[in-house]
Amino acid sequence: MALRHAVMAALLEGEASGYDLAKRFDTATADFWTSTPQQLYRELERMEGEGLIRARVVEQERRPNKRVFSLTEEGRSALHAFTRRPAKPTAIRDDMLVKLQAVDAGDPEAVRTSVMERMERARAKLARYERIRERLLNGRSEEEYLRETDHVGPYLTLLRGRYFEEENLRWGDEVLSILDARAARRAPR
Amino acid sequence: MALRHAVMAALLEGEASGYDLAKRFDTATADFWTSTPQQLYRELERMEGEGLIRARVVEQERRPNKRVFSLTEEGRSALHAFTRRPAKPTAIRDDMLVKLQAVDAGDPEAVRTSVMERMERARAKLARYERIRERLLNGRSEEEYLRETDHVGPYLTLLRGRYFEEENLRWGDEVLSILDARAARRAPR
DNA sequence: ATATTCATGTAACAAGTTACATGATTAG
DNA sequence: CTAATCATGTAACTTGTTACATGAATAT
């Protein structure tokens, strides 16, 4: 049931269509939650039925009409209640970790390539986060921003994303150097 | 389909019962994959049916009998093939991020408490990882270990766990200080 | 005494993924 | 002219979670 709360949290920043949310929750770009469009459309239906959000149809000229959702009072208070509940413990769940755990019985070259692809993605995400950060700060220093804004949530989640990707890069570097050392030992020139 | 690969990767280190795997994949302790016992028992059944693993019944005296699983040749080659496939992109998916995204419309005090609990868990996990590391190194330096072992997977995943929890702590510190500064401003003594 | 550990499962449900479908518009 | 963007969905399937159930043994 976290998706619905993620949707409500996203709607705090203003109304959005299913399509908008799908972009925001896309794995490649998401900064605090991910989901597929299919899951979203299904969940939005339910949430509307339960009165947590409300839809407004916006007629467009050269585009299909869209349904734009916003939080209801009920949704807002459900979200408030959610922040009071204890957070579930999380752990990383990553395909890549399974591959690495099995690297000794697997194909080290292929795994190496995956790690490098991952690092490339991490760099792209960091760049993206940096752009979002600029937009948030809007010329101000971090201190100024934090003093002035009454909307600190997006900053905190962005920070987590940044740290996470930095950690990925740090780890990737070590993994590559360890795998290389082993490859060199096994197939000495 | 990653659970089955995680199971196979775990079985590389020797045979295990469903119960053993359940402990290893428990969220509180897992170092490279998580799942509930229920999911495991279901998946083990299927995997046995598909010939990826094989069960051996161990009769015990003062304990219930157990079924101990090991990798078959088929399983081993499926695992090898898995390491050759590209890794799916991942992103953090964490309840806590949703709470923080919504903290401005929520209950900052409660969120603060959750963050502190998380940090406590992170410290516990770090301590646990440290113990596992000692056991792996077994008196040797990292360099020696890496030179001597032919089983580098567990070391690499452990490293990721450590970095991840360190990142959690670093982030938690920043979050707390930002939330505190805001609380002080809103309710000046 | 009580809680935890060992050891396995069933059943029902919720959440997430994949494949498919439609159809106009605009950017390269 | 092709790909991407805008905008929505249905259907089928796979994963993951929660609740319940059993029953002995050992640790506190």
TrEMBL record, chains A, B:
Ranges where the Transcription regulator PadR N-terminal domain occurs: 8-80
Gene3D superfamilies referenced in this protein's UniProt entry, alphabetically: 6.10.140.190, Winged helix-like DNA-binding domain superfamily/Winged helix DNA-binding domain
Pfam families: PadR, Vir_act_alpha_C
Keyword Cell division in annotation: no
Classification via InterPro entries: Tscrpt_reg_PadR_C (IPR018309), Tscrpt_reg_PadR_N (IPR005149), WH-like_DNA-bd_sf (IPR036388), WH_DNA-bd_sf (IPR036390)
Keyword Lipid biosynthesis: no
Domain called Transcription regulator PadR C-terminal: residue spans: 92-180
Alphabetical UniProt keywords: Coiled coil
Chain segments annotated as coiled-coil in the UniProt record: 112-139
Protein name: PadR family transcriptional regulator
Species: Nocardiopsis endophytica
